[in-house]
Amino acid sequence: MERRRGRRRAPKRTPLLGSYIGYAATFVGAGLISGAIVHHPLDPSRYTLIAVVGAAVFLFATVLNEFVLTKRRPGVTRVLGIVTASLALSFGIGMLSGGLQHFEDFPERAAMLIPFGLALSFVAYVLRHEPARWRSIAGPAGALVLITAALAFVGLRGIADGMAAESGGGHSHGEETAEETEAPDEADPGHHQGTNTGTPAAGKPERTATPAETVDTGHTDDGHSH
Question: Is 71 left (phi over 0), alpha (psi -120 to 50) or beta?
């Protein structure tokens, strides 16, 4: 009887399917956000929509994991704090992971996303999961994260500038060769004009015969004069 009562009093487990959906939605939302942040310059309207969808998926996962599956009933202020911190955390992680993944594709943009994403994700994590330790943001841990982000920004910015200089030099050589190849094409009208001017020049030998004729006529005239 005691064992049966103990089994009955045991807390209910979280539904397995619900836990999986909440877990998967968390990473899917963060992945959509990270991809949208990095690729936003390519197609702003498209990737803005993807970022909004990713944020909605992440917030859905937050509500499911924090309120529905756990059956908590926090106040409005607590709900807004959790939602805001979770959204900031998703964007911070998205900036960090997206910048690391696509640094070679977008070096200048990634050099800014990585350090800012690191700082934002740390602050959002503390406010989201350790709200009682919010003072640690301005403490040694926060200072360490800030210094790391600053060093990362300077270092990655230098690497990005070097990559841009190398790619810029390659493009300049391509433009020079393109200009060199275009130069003969621009000179083609001149060649055509030369051929056009050569046509009358070809007619000049015909006119050279006229002086001979004039000489002959001159002799005949001289003969008549004699």
Answer: left
